[in-house]
Automatic annotation (TrEMBL):
Family note: Belongs to the enoyl-CoA hydratase/isomerase family.
Species of origin: Shimia abyssi
GO-annotated molecular function: isomerase activity
InterPro entries assigned: ClpP/crotonase-like_dom_sf (IPR029045), Ech1-like (IPR045002), Enoyl-CoA_hydra/iso (IPR001753), Enoyl-CoA_hydra_C (IPR014748)
Pfam family of the protein (one): ECH_1
UniProt keyword list: Fatty acid metabolism, Isomerase, Lipid metabolism
Name of the molecule in the record: Enoyl-CoA hydratase/carnithine racemase
Chain ranges passing through the membrane: none
Superkingdom of origin: Bacteria
Record carries keyword Cell membrane: no
Amino acid sequence: MSRVSVEIENHIAHVTLTRGDKMNALDPKMMQAIVEAGEGLMARDEVRVVLLSGEGKAFCAGLDIMSFGAMAGQDPESFLMPRTYGDANLFQQVAMVWRKLPMPVICALQGVAYGGGFQIALGADVRIAAPGTKLAVMEIKWGIVPDMGGMALLPHLTGSDVIRRLTYSAAPFEAEQALEWGLVTELAEDPVAAALALAEEIAEKSPSAIRAAKELIGFAEAHMGDQDAVLLEESRVQAGLIGKPHQMETIASNLQKRKPNFD
């Protein structure tokens, strides 16, 4: 049974979690499928934006605890400590692959995004949630800590006190509160439609500039506090864009009041 679908249309990759009957809960096969979907887009130059969503009534309910019962008798270091995806293990790559992609990722949320599902959403560049969507840093409920990239991603989005409150309590909170805390970008009655509209808007911009912008933002986050390095990187990235074909087409289309053609 397929757990993730990938369809590319008009330069937008629609990545959908397709275990809707289980609220898209994460079992080992689904985690592997999510990573493979993300990794498969790394070199797809024709893809300008990714729209990540979950079918059915929930984005992702987090780990399918029953399916991970087999791990109980294993040495946890054997499957957690090896860095099988660069700086990440499989669990972490399920969320981090979306941040590592060269193109923007927009995540549409509905129903619930708990635990691992919440951390997957954190890996996206933008999160659009339906009103009333419930989110949670759920791991403490099971006697563990967030370990799917959450601790690498959360500090860039909200304050330490908020992270501690959510982690220590494991209490669900709604999208409206998440918006105040900076954990979702905006609310929409139909988050998939809103995400698609934004994806279509981004897909009409210079592909090289959009990818450069994502890389530059990531650099600035990683070098926060090192102003000299960030200013130098701004200049380096800009020098690589000015006068190149995508920039010249952007200028021409603006002056001629037409849609750009980057193909």
